[in-house]
Amino acid sequence: EKRSSKAAGCFGEGMKVEINRLVALGDEVGIITGRSFWQFAHVEHTGPGSAQSSFPGAAKNESTLKCQITASEDYCGHTSVVVCRDPGKPKLLEPECFLYLLPADQCSPRVRGGDLDILLDPKFSGKVYVHGIYICFSSTLQGIGLNFVGDSGNYG
At 128, is the pLDDT very low, low, confident or very high (cuts 50, 70, 90)? Predict the structure, then answer.
């Protein structure tokens, strides 16, 4: 189903915002697609109309996200996003926060029933997930975790 241009995310702003956030944290972000490599960085401005500022109206000490696209002779038939992060920094993604990123044997045993999976492994004790995405911790769930898998109208 084609989305309307009025819909949030239609123009990929979510990806741009996340790339901007990662670059601001000092990570290197690149995208490999087709015959090109896109590399992102922040460009600092010294003030409006300065030689270093190529963006009209840019304020002093303001930075802008820049994308440099480099052509490649090699063709990549899919799109890959590459994030390079200093190993001393915290992880960007904790696999334990996404059940579907864990091997199936690490998500069992579980009891499936209607709109709810009950996670019996002690490592999930107190954890609440919705469609496999970690939402919160609940001290009332001692010894089990929950994963709501049904229709969003049933989460109330």
Answer: very high
The answer to whether 149 touches 116, Cβ cutoff 8 Å, is yes
Question: Is 23 in contact with 40 (CB distance < 8 Å)?
Answer: yes
CA distance 119 to 20: 36
Q: Determine the residue type at 42.
A: H
Our CA dihedral for 136, 139, 140, 146, rounded to 10 degrees, sits at 40
Q: What is the DSSP string of 48-108?
A: TT-TT--STTPPTT-EEEEEEEEEEEEEEEEEEEEEE--TTSPPS--GGGBGGGS-GGGS-
Q: pLDDT tens across 5-61, in order?
A: 555 556 667 788 888 888 888 889 999 989 999 999 988 866 555 445 444 555 556
What are the CA-CA distances from residue 78 to residues 90, 115, 135 (Å)?
A: 28, 35, 31
The per-type count for the chain, helices as H runs and strands as E runs, is 1, 7
Task: Provide φ and ψ at 15, rounded to 5°.
Answer: -65, -40
